[in-house]
Design goal:
By secondary structure, the chain is α/β, with parallel strands linked by helices. The protein folds into 3 domains: about 300 residues, Alpha-Beta Barrel (TIM Barrel), CATH 3.20.20.70; about 50 residues, no CATH class; about 70 residues, no CATH class. The chain contains 13 helices and 15 strands. It has an 8-stranded parallel beta barrel with strand order 1-2-3-4-7-8-9-10, surrounded by 7 helices. The chain is globular and about 50 Å long. The C terminus is likely disordered.
Amino acid sequence: MANQHHPSLKTPFGTRAQSAGHPLSSYLLRLMELKQSNLCLSADVTTARELLYLAEKAGPSIVVLKTHYDLISGWDYSPKTGTGAKLAALARRFGFLIFEDRKFADIGKTVQMQYTAGTARIIEWAHITNINIHAGKDSVRALAEAAAKWRERIKYEVRTSVSVGTPLSDSFEDDEEGNGAGVGGSSSMASPPIAGSSSSGGGPPPSVYGRDADGRKGSIVSITTVTQSFEPADSPRLSKSMSGEGVDDLVFPGIEEAPLERGLLILAQMSSKGCLMTPDYTAACVEAARENRRFVMGFVAQEGLNSEADDDFLTMTPGCKLPPQGEEENGPLEGDGLGQQYNTPAKLIGLGTDIVIVGRGIIKADDPQSEAERYRRKAWSAYQERESRRFKYGQDSKNWVFTSEEVGVGLLWADVKTSKAAKRTATGGRHAAVSTQLAVMSEASKESSDHGWIDIQFTVRRDPTGP
């Protein structure tokens, strides 16, 4: 399924952002370049206090925060000041997206309701969610339709004003009762002037005393007027109406707020031992993603799943773990005894994943903040190593120069022993026929002593000194 020679594996995140089909994918790729991070924190904790604490401490090091809202005791469901709203404010402040790991797995109508309604109203605060498509691909389409309707609705805020009117009378008591002897035999209110009387001294009109000018008794009637108007939202983002303690409206510098979009990841592979997701199931996931490119950002999988030329899906991978500091990084990693299996950031990113998902390795650390930063550095270094496996320099007899610093992208497969090109595909930029004899000068070729195929991304420009 995975294509280890796919151009997306060698294209810098910033370059991929320019052509990404989903607005959230483009934003996330640019955010990754800005923060030099491809780390997602899986905040599997059981209280809202712990969740918000981890989001704040790890926020500077991550680009995605993965939640399980149904694990949280004390989750505040208020749309404006609740837990989701506070997470949204922290996401703006520290620069990360929120991924609710809901794993929808039902028929289309049900997953639509689970996504947009219910207690949590996931769509209101989570940029990304995910789905298990064992129920069928139509569930993906159903979520896409729900997200499209939400997007159209949220563009406008509904302003509602309510005015309530009641009679002006101080009392609705019958005049005969009201003018009867009160305490001490006195009237409880002044007697109204008699019509036609010369006494026009300033007494209130008859209606004030419970009867109109014709002597009819007033009734208790409330008049309610409801007026609605649709106005453009102040910001096409998550609500900024935060009033919770410790939450502000600061925005992470260097990039705009996340776009008014929602995205989906399809659960295509899992890291657990004995997982029943077959290759056929994974292939169906890729097919569903291609059919819903405007909504599907990518996959939760164990490897990159881009295989066709126009595929540019993101892959996020759980089961990432580093050994304790000071221990051999490439040594074997034990599972948790409950089916979870672990791999290092270097191995996962080498297999084509874009973002590694780390949970207990960070949240169980004595210092989650510094441990998140350690994982960020390791994961980003692994990405840089993967991205750097490309032509550093080479020139053929036609004076065409290959350099990784020019515009235009191609993919070359080269035998690192003989330096002969076997296949070339190119997209963008100016290209010409390439000689099969190449001076391959990459780190991989220098270190390799055996015949083997490596894929090298390169760009082409005309050597200005050549003929």
